Amino acid sequence: MKEVERIVRVDHAGERGAIGIYSAQLLVARVLYKDLVKVLEEMLSHEREHYATFNRILKSRGIRHCYGLTVWALGGWGLGIITALLGRNAIWVCTNSIETAVLHHLHWQLSFLELHDAEIHAAVLSIKQDEEEHQEVGKENGGDSIVYKPIFWLVQWSTKFAIWLSNKL
Ligand SMILES: [Fe+2]
Ligand SMILES: [Fe+2]
Where do the TM regions start and end (predicted)? Predict the structure, then answer.
């Protein structure tokens, strides 16, 4: 079914973007925020698992990947570098913002998949738990200062735009 294929493709691409973000933030954190290295490494390993899960499904079903895959990897990397250089709070504001957009998207997918594809529903459901944890960490550490609001909205709308575009590519 076309819609199911699109869901796996978009999620696969999104996880590639997430790997880019955390890899870049980790690079900066190793120099500037050594205390964040461990938690960022942990998150990166989650995103690698998520990516592998969707990769497996794509391969086993013969579904092509998103044409924007490389762009999301680079875009994610750029976003990771910029937010990390803006400061440790910006890292977490970025995480909170992305996961808020992602979870909104996953909720919609889950209600659709529940009726249409048990295997992918289970995969998305298992990933959702990790993303909720990431969102929590982001919320707790991001800080509520008004200074960060533009970052929050900018990242959230970029994420929504990337999801929308991935649906077309
Ligand atoms: Fe993920
Ligand atoms: Fe995540």
Answer: 66-87
